[in-house]
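Ticket #4471: structure output looks truncated?

Reporter: J.K.
Steps to reproduce: submitted the chain below (106 residues) through the standard prediction queue, then opened the result file.
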Amino acid sequence: TYMATALKMCASQLGTRDEEDAHACIIITDGEASDPAELPATLQQLKTENIKLMGIYVGSDASSAGKLREMVCGDASPSEACPWFASATDFSELHARAAAIAESIA
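Returned output as attached by the reporter:
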């Protein structure tokens, strides 16, 4: 997944928003970043522009899920609640949980 590219596109599209609008990018992935070298600068851009990042991992690879959670939640331990990260084992489970995930960040 080209995460930095996707997040840059999201930030660009949010650049035309009104201040009252939501300020969030949501990335849904089943893997790790294909462009990891670009991520730190892109994540800093989101912070600078006050854009929240939500990550949703779909799959069963704990390592990949952990990397996405760390990217989204920072150094919060896995036992700490982080409303900006969610995971599902497959897209059927994600679909079933979509409303609860949306409510957790509302």
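Triage note (M.O.): checked the attachment and the full token line is present. The radius of gyration is 14 Å.
Status: closed, working as intended.
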